Amino acid sequence: MENWLPKLPIADWVDAFVTWLTTNLDAAFSGITTVLEAVVDGMVAGFSFIPSYVFMILLTLIAWKAANKTIALFTLIGLFLIANLGYWEPMLQTLALVLAAVIISILLGIPLGIWASQKHSVKQVVTPILDFMQTMPAFVYLIPAIFFFSIGVVPGVVASVIFAMPPTIRLTILGIQQVPDDIIEATDAFGSTTSQRLIKVQLPLAMPTIMAGINQSIMLALSMVVIASMVGAPGLGADVYRAVTQIQIGKGFEAGLAIVVIAIILDRITQNIGKNKKHGGTA
Amino acid sequence: MKKIEVRNVTKVFGKSRKAIQLLREGESKQNILKKTGATVGVNQANFSVEAGEIFVIMGLSGSGKSTLVRMLNRLIDPTVGEVFIDGQDIVKMNKVQLKNVRRKKISMVFQKFALLPHRTVLENTEYGLEIQGVPKETRSMKAMDALKLVGLEGYENQYPQSLSGGMQQRVGLARALANDADILLMDEAFSALDPLIRKDMQDELLELQAKMKKTIVFITHDLDEALRIGDRIALMKDGSIVQIGTAEEILMNPSNDYVERFVEDVDLSKVLTAGHVMKRAESVSIEKGPRVALKNMKELGISSIYVVDKKKTLLGAITAADAKKALERGESLTSILQEDLQTVSPDTILTDLFEKVSTASIPVSVVDENNRLLGILVRGAVIGALAGNNFDLNTMSAAKIEAAAGNLEKLEQSGLPNSSNQPMLTGNDDFSSQSEGRGQDNTNKSSFSSPADETPNYDREVN
């Protein structure tokens, strides 16, 4: 095995590819960086502009509308706790980072999922790429991300998108493909075009599953915040990272707790949005 | 006019070229599977459906009937063959032409209803029109009309899952009717429903068909259903059509052992009619006196007898006790005539007879459309036939044939399965308007309200 085939120079190829990308697509990358930075900073500025108590009440009302009283109460107490511990500003930065990553995941992931659900060949190409995105250790693509997007919030967002997007794509494909065959047959029998079938039948029926995918993407994006902070993304992740490197166990726990609170709030709200769309269950 | 014509349509799943060759050489489905690994869905089917006809394709599961019907609107593409809809071969059509045929000419009803769970009943019914771009108001009006037709008025804002199976399939039917296509494909449309609901739906379909005159291709695995609703029936086995014919032809001349075995198990109570189990009715002319009537009854050993006029039109019945009184008082038969009798037409099927026969005090008579007396239904014989005693039938084999023929005739004449429940006494000159009214009332009355309380002492049967 060792001698008859020389070692494949995959590492060299990747290095060469990364160098080629940095030199040739520099303009594109700096463009993406500028836009993403503006979006995240804009969100943080917008969130910070709202007084913290108004923000708390707003999110509580959203939780109430989307879910129920218990979750609304949890939201209020949880946000109050975060403010009390002094993590309000980092929390807003984390929220902006996660939202940016999730919005990009949705904007890219749902169309890609729809495409893959309609065309078998696309699905066959997409699936291994998704496996790659989900299992390749994040640190491996964090370093080239710094090359492309420099230090700061943008490589954090990019890393979060890579890690968080697969569930949205996968569950979009699944949701569309698990629409019962007889319903598809019926829509075809009445002479629907492909897009009518998609918009009027497949997407509405797949919506609960797609929402579950988005929910998973949010959770995964949140789980990336500490790793994102290593490339310079601000927020709760940075606080955890700092506490861990300085062995401040108590402080680390506080920041971690804030992440958990945000995670639970976002999870419950998005989960229930998915359920409300169901009209009392699919066939 | 031929609405649908299917020529040499074959569907092979898997490697088809070799299989088609073998099929042409007359190789069996099993051998082809062994030799090529390809499954034959439908083997060289040929048939045509006339406009306004109910054409039933019947076969057991795996016989290829569902595949065949799906090739009529190309939900499944035929491997070879031609399918003409209104003279146009849809196999050769491009996507856009096919889409238009599906929108305008062919609707389909599915076994598992296939309703859209995220849409209300009305929105489901509108679907076919909605995708054609029909304006909102027009399409909901048409959808409401279709829902009215199937008896679902008032349910339009419900979601399908809150309805029972029978009602869901009504929505499926309304959805198919809403876009006003000439051709209706019904794939085991009633098979998922329980037997009573299924029968109701069959009746309603026939009623609708009498009004709308669609061309219906109906798939079923149930021979009773096929005999009940089919103008013509195609029997399938292993992907091939083994026989096409009217119910009568299939029952009378099964083309091979397979058909014969299939036909053997016909549930006779659903095909046998009053005509098959009735006995010769004893009657006396209205012009005769009570003495003659009494003598006849005595000779026959019966306690009541029908009274007819010269044309054999049924006027009523008299009992021995009344005849005796009339004789003593010197009155005519007219004065003691019981006019409110239960009557049925000869093509009423046995299952519908049972209640009438079991509750009537004077034996139920069988009359034709002019109210002429044809025969009498003896309780014992009806029950015997229902229980499957063949000797209660006039003759078994003849009955079977007539059963099919009668069934078919009935459908052809009226399209209404229960025409026998319509008043039979109306339009008869020999009746006064009063008795006409009474007779009508009586025949329309549900069999639960027997006239026994009004006319006691008639418990002895003729024969």
Give the overall shape of chain B: elongated
Q: Helical content of chain B, roughly?
A: 40-55%
Could you list the spans of chain A in which at least 5 consecutive residues all have pLDDT below 50?
277-283
CATH C-level of chain A: Mainly Alpha
Helix content of chain A: over 70%
Mean pLDDT of chain A: 89
Query: What is the correct CATH architecture of chain A?
Result: Orthogonal Bundle
Give the CATH class of the largest domain in chain B: Alpha Beta
Strand content of chain A: under 5%
CATH superfamily of the largest domain in chain B: P-loop containing nucleotide triphosphate hydrolases
Count of separate structural domains of chain B: 2
Order of helices and strands of chain A: HHHHHHHHHHHHH
Search tags:
heterodimer; A: 283 residues; mainly alpha; MetI-like fold; 13 helices; disordered C terminus; B: 463 residues; alpha/beta; Rossmann fold; CBS-domain; 2 domains; six-stranded mixed sheet; four-stranded antiparallel sheet; 19 helices; elongated
3D structure, described in words:
The complex is a heterodimer of chains A (283) and B (463). Chain A is mainly alpha-helical and 283 residues long. Chain A has one domain: Orthogonal Bundle (MetI-like fold). Chain A contains 13 helices and no strands. In chain A, helix 10 runs antiparallel to helix 13. Chain B has 463 residues and is of the alpha/beta class. Chain B has two domains: 188 residues, Rossmann fold; 180 residues, CBS-domain. A six-stranded mixed sheet of chain B has the order 6-7-8-3-9-10, with helices on both faces. In chain B, helix 1 runs antiparallel to helix 2. Chain B starts with a strand and ends in a 19-residue tail after the last helix. Chains A and B meet through helix 9 and helix 10 of A and helix 4, strand 6 and helix 5 of B.
